[in-house]
Amino acid sequence: MYAAQPDGDMTIPAVNPAWLSDDKVRREVDYWSDEKPGTIIVDPWARYVYYILGDNRAIRYTAAVGKEGRGFAGTAYIPMKREWPRWTPTANMIKREPEVYEPLRGGMEGGLDNPLGARALYLYRNGRDTLYRIHGTPYPWTIGTADSSGCIRLYNQDSRDLYDRVETGAKVIVLRRDQFGRGTVPPGTPLPTPPADDLSVAAPEATADTEAGIEAGI
């Protein structure tokens, strides 16, 4: 499942077993939801992404979540998705660390070192880009952790699996903190208590990737 995977002209590296644990592995789980199959539910507080299968079942992916990943909640949809997407650093990133990001001002082509990883799903609401992304990562050791920045990051193997399942136009629901654990227990059962908030919430930031014709976030 997490072995090296040939992918066009590239090969997704295997995930080191040391970075995998039973709770991080992609799996089918019980998930009580009335949403139709193909819907994605993101629980950033639990660091899980669920792909609804129907009949109270879902595929669960473990995520790394940055503060931007907690800066959006509610319903969105996916008008587009990209393989090996381009990435552009934000103006604030360039300002904070010009020695690192100034050379990338014009954008970074997709590849093994690209922060968006192997696949990216772009979330829109009311026809506008939310700047919220579900994407892969070249940093698999971060999966399952809270990070200082970024949206919702998956193992590249998982981003590819989810990408292949998701149809353009799919509905996405991002849960609030008070909805932590929703769907993981039967209806009528009290929801689990969310963990202490270990990240401050900030609105996601991005700059226009004019060559690709999309907004590029992290």
From TrEMBL:
Pfam families to which the protein is assigned, alphabetical: YkuD
Top-level taxon of origin: Bacteria
Family matches, as InterPro entries: LD-transpeptidase, LD_TPept_cat_dom, Transpep_catalytic_dom
Pathway info: Cell wall biogenesis; peptidoglycan biosynthesis
One of the GO BP terms on file: peptidoglycan-protein cross-linking
Gene3D superfamilies linked to this entry: L,D-transpeptidase catalytic domain-like
Domain L,D-TPase catalytic residues, every copy: 38-175
Alphabetized GO MF terms: glycosyltransferase activity; peptidoglycan L,D-transpeptidase activity
One GO cellular component, as annotated: extracellular region
Keyword set, alphabetical order: Cell shape, Cell wall biogenesis/degradation, Glycosyltransferase, Hydrolase, Peptidoglycan synthesis, Transferase
Active-site residues, Swiss-Prot/TrEMBL: H135, C151
Chain positions covered by the region annotation Disordered: 181-200
Keyword Hydrolase: yes
Statement: the UniProt record of this protein carries the keyword Transferase: yes
Family, per entry: Belongs to the YkuD family.
Official protein name in the record: L,D-TPase catalytic domain-containing protein
Organism for this UniProt entry: Haematobacter genomosp. 1
